[in-house]
Specification:
Elements (H helix, E strand, L loop, with lengths): L1 E6 L2 E4 L4 E9 L6 E7 L6 E7 L4 E3 L7 E6 L4 E6 L8 E7 L9 E6 L1
Parallel strand pairs: 2-10
Antiparallel strand pairs: 1-3, 3-8, 4-5, 4-9, 5-6, 7-8, 9-10
Length: 113
């Protein structure tokens, strides 16, 4: 089993930045791919970024150039750097393995104008 705990969310003004963290514990050697997802009321949860063990990353188009996913596998920690925040980035952000087996509890990001 794997436990994921997110932190770093908060309220920021549009144009600001946040760095979300995800601490993994347990059977972390099973985490070949990690991802960040977000969910807003009335919308489906969407995956925004992923990172593989070898460092390969993927992003959805709407966050390219503003979001950066990174990892420190030795510390079992994953991050999502969010720059130039937009109002539409407001959501509950989750870290998860890429296959949906393990999820954190989420951290809220609220962007104000």
């Amino acid at each position: 089993l794997v436990r994921l705990v997110e932190s770093g969310g908060g309220s920021v003004r549009a144009g600001g930045s946040l760095r979300l963290s995800c601490a993994a514990s347990g059977a972390t050697d099973t985490l070949s791919c990690m991802s960040w997802w977000r969910e807003t009321l009335g919308k489906e949860r969407e995956g925004v970024a992923s990172i593989y063990t070898n460092g390969y990353t993927t992003y959805i188009d709407s966050v390219k150039g503003r979001f950066t996913i990174s990892q420190d596998r030795a510390k079992n920690t994953f991050w999502l750097q969010i720059d130039n925040l937009k109002l539409e980035d407001s959501a509950l952000y989750y870290c998860a393995d890429c296959y949906g087996n393990y999820w954190g509890q989420g951290t809220q990001v609220t962007v104000a104008s």
